[in-house]
Amino acid sequence: MTTRLSAETLATLADRADVPGYDRAALRPGIVHIGVGNFHRAHQAVYLDRLFRAGLGHDWALIGAGVMPGDAAMRETLAAQDYLTTVVEQDADGAHATITAGMIDFLPAGDAEAIVDRLSQADIRIASMTITEGGYYLDSDGHFDPTHPAIAADAANPDAPKTVFGMLVAALARRRAAGVQPFTVMSCDNIPHNGVVARAAVTGLARQIDADLGEWISANVAFPNGMVDRITPATGDRERADVKASFGIDDAWPVYCEPFTQWVLEDNFPAGRPPLEEVGVQFVPDVTPYELMKIRILNGGHAVIAYPAGLLDIHFVHEAMEHPLVRGFLARIEAEEIVPTVPPVPDTDLNEYYQLIEGRFANPKIGDTVRRLCLDGSNRQPKFIIPTIADRLTAGAGVEGLALESALWCRYCYGETESGAEIAPNDPNWERLQPVARAAKDDPAAWLAMEDIYGAVGHDPRFAEAFATALNALWSDGVVAVLTRYVNG
């Protein structure tokens, strides 16, 4: 028997999933979250649901919001099931379903007036967001780009903003004019110093609109940095069918994820915050060590396995970890080139952390795809891989493995796997990357000439030589032979 997920049917699902015992009608909003995707619903929304189940923080319920076209479909889907979500945690030992109920509303997608108005109200004390790494309007140096057309348009028409940051600025301006304490802006995106990056975007746009407003925001609005972590694949027909078959729940957009979750936050919330430390969030003075550890070892590790697996026509991430060459490539490059660049982290053994990551990647139940890991390399490589290369070069250390990782990315962007299968475009800049990757087959330097991606690393002769050697070998000998030589030392 399958039951459609809704507030009306919630009590009847208690024998199939953990259902919330708190009174949803008694929840009061405290957070507007922009970007209600799978990761948010498996992470921030789960922590808040746990808090509400503990009888705490009932004035911190979520209101969803979004500015992208896809957000309208998410809003429609969630509204039809009373904003409830089935979160399925899976590992080799089994699966466990929890229904979260901490979201109580979802504003009309892209409706600037509705979003700005709700953000302007005093009960909203945190504006959080998950807008992906590419949503911060950064230039080639990783700094906020005030000349980006979307930002320039909002600066010219601040009363009808289209971007997340335009809406945040407009709401903060209203709160300032009304004498209402500003909300805290909390980025939940997987980028280094996400609070610093969010501050640059909000204040940068505000200063274009009104210099005094920009200074007021800089002086009065908090932007805590945070590190977020939970492997959460996209939802497809596979997950929709499984939640029906395994749990008898008809959820139009369930979330599947690993059991592991981590959230480390700097404790900088002048307008108040929910007591999330009661449900496992780590509040620290400086998130930098945790952030660097995760970005280099986990996100960098994802990049390491992504491109060889993609070129070998491997579909799922756990299948990549079952391939001895892919797993061996990851193990050696982490041990020799990535982990040694990570500074000490409080109360953490970095080698044990890597072993945890390796086990998470190998989880056979998650269904995370290699293609998802390969996505958006032009945005991810400069954040997750190239800074590690730069540190290795500065230290005079070897970069053989990292150069091979970069060569594998270039080979992937050629658009054809080892078997000759076409690789469909898998990067917002694919139309630029593919011609350069094809030119690099005969001239590897063409790939490193992409200044916005490689910067000074691309000009370093040690890296350039190692990259050219690796790329030429991939073309002459193939992925399997090159990986075999590397793994065997």
Please sum up the structure shown:
InterPro entries: 6-PGluconate_DH-like_C_sf (IPR008927), 6PGD_dom2 (IPR013328), Mannitol_DH (IPR000669), Mannitol_DH/Oxidoreductase (IPR050988), Mannitol_DH_C (IPR013118), Mannitol_DH_CS (IPR023027), Mannitol_DH_N (IPR013131), NAD(P)-bd_dom_sf (IPR036291). Pfam families: Mannitol_dh, Mannitol_dh_C. The protein has 489 residues and is an alpha/beta fold.
Furnish the topology, listing elements before pairings.
Blueprint: E1 3-4, E2 29-34, H1 38-42, H2 44-53, E3 61-65, H3 69-80, E4 85-91, E5 94-100, E6 103-106, H4 112-120, E7 126-129, H5 149-156, H6 164-178, E8 184-187, H7 194-209, H8 211-220, E9 226-229, H9 237-247, E10 249-250, E11 255-257, E12 262-266, E13 282-284, H10 288-311, H11 317-322, H12 324-338, H13 350-361, H14 370-374, H15 377-384, H16 386-394, H17 400-413, H18 430-440, H19 445-448, H20 451-454, H21 461-477, H22 479-487
Parallel strand pairs: 1-10, 2-3, 2-7, 3-6, 4-11, 7-8, 12-13
Antiparallel strand pairs: 4-5, 9-12
Helix pairs in contact: 4-6, 5-7, 6-7, 7-8, 10-12, 10-13, 10-15, 10-17, 12-22, 17-18, 17-21, 21-22
What does this structure look like?
This protein has 489 residues and is of the alpha/beta class. It has two domains: 3-284, Rossmann fold; 288-487, N-(1-d-carboxylethyl)-l-norvaline Dehydrogenase, domain 2 (Orthogonal Bundle). It is built from 22 helices and 13 strands. The strands form four sheets. A five-stranded parallel β-sheet has the order 6-3-2-7-8, sandwiched between helices. It has a three-stranded mixed β-sheet with strand order 5-4-11, with helices on both faces. The radius of gyration is 23 Å and the shape is globular. The protein starts with a strand and ends with a helix. The model has no long low-confidence stretch (mean pLDDT 96). One of its GO terms (molecular function) is oxidoreductase activity, acting on the CH-OH group of donors, NAD or NADP as acceptor.
